[in-house]
Structures are given as structure tokens and as C-alpha cells.
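Teaching assistant here, posting this on the class forum so everyone can see the example we discussed in section. The complex has two components, and the goal was to see what a joint structure prediction looks like when all of them are supplied at once.
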Amino acid sequence: AQKITQTQPGMFVQEKEAVTLDCTYDTSDPSYGLFWYKQPSSGEMIFLIYQGSYDQQNATEGRYSLNFQKARKSANLVISASQLGDSAMYFCAITRGTSYGKLTFGQGTILTVHP
Amino acid sequence: SAVISQKPSRDICQRGTSLTIQCQVDSQVTMMFWYRQQPGQSLTLIATANQGSEATYESGFVIDKFPISRPNLTFSTLTVSNMSPEDSSIYLCSVEGPKGKETQYFGPGTRLLVL
């Protein structure tokens, strides 16, 4: 079974600063993927970034980058140059094998960006 | 990216009644997924809906409580039966991205409150 742990219930960051949201995982699948989603107060789930377990390089998408350390089973999200609109809940999730549809989510981290 | 719509967007229901949630995708997809997000909690996969076959339910979810239909490749329904206040949640449907696009798209969700 897969398990995702997000140990930071809440994080605060100053506008324009960088912030790292932690995510550790456990899985017995030899091949898997890791997702980060943003959920604003409206409730929609917004895809941010994906990292495959066999990808050689860490994933990047604009201001988002993923610090993937496979041996440590961690997949931390780094948000650079934080904006007020980044204030939201952030979820880390892992696939069940290579099925992108079947995700196991962590408990989430609430990020608050201060002006 | 896939565009997913859900109906209703929100509803308030009485205990003991049932509600059917619709999910429409703008492209044909093999599998559709239903998730539940209880208040203040993370997302949990309820079931996978394949066109032309019975839905596959996750541990803790049963067909009698959450019957699912998948009449074609762009549409699915989830029924929450014999509701109780514990069923108050956001229900989201999702689909995998196209081949080569490692992502999963979520619908806007249906906010359900059971009194």
C-alpha cells in the first residue's frame, strides 16, 4: 500500500520569498509517480507538477520545482517568488504503480503568503 | 487539457435520501475516477469507472452505498445512497491525461451537505 506524509499542517511565507513544502512517501511499487496539487478555497484541484520515479532530473514547472530524493523517499515542492495567490492548501500524492488515476493523497499543507 | 464539468455544484439533502452526481468530460476517456473529500480532510479514492464494465471499488466503499454508472466514454454518475450527515463531503470526478501527459484532471467538485 502507498502512504504519503506531509508533516507541515501550515506554513507561512513572505511575498516574493521561496518556500519548501515537505512530502515523504512509502510504496512497494517499483515504478510510480508523484504529484503536487493546489486547492484554493474554491475547492478545485489544480495540477502543479509531476515527477516520475525513473526521471533523471527533478521536475520544474514555472515557479514550481520538485526536490526529488528517491533514496530518502521524499518529494518536496519548492515554490519560488511566492505570490499572494499562492495561499491555498497543497496536496502531495502518489500513484498506484503507473496508474495516474489512482492516487493516494497526503493530508495537505496550508500555505499562507503574507504581503 | 481535459475539461470536466459536474452537476450539481452543491446541494443540501435530507438524511435517508439519495443524490446522483453527474460528471461530463469533453473528450473520450477509458477510465473515470470518483474521489471523496470529507471536511478538513484529504481526498480518498472511492472507485474507478470503466465504460462497459462494473466499477471497481476501493476498500471501505461498496456498490450499494455508492452505485456508479458509466454509459459512455464521456460521462459517469455517482449516487450517494441513503445519506447520513457523515456523507457530507466534496465529491470529485477525475480523468487521466492523454498518453504522454502525466497528469490527472479533476472536475470542480460537488459540495454535499446532509442534514
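For the discussion questions: The CA atoms of residues 4 and 107 of chain B lie 5 Å apart. Chain B touches chain A through 22 residues (CB under 8 Å). Think about how each of these relates to the inputs above.
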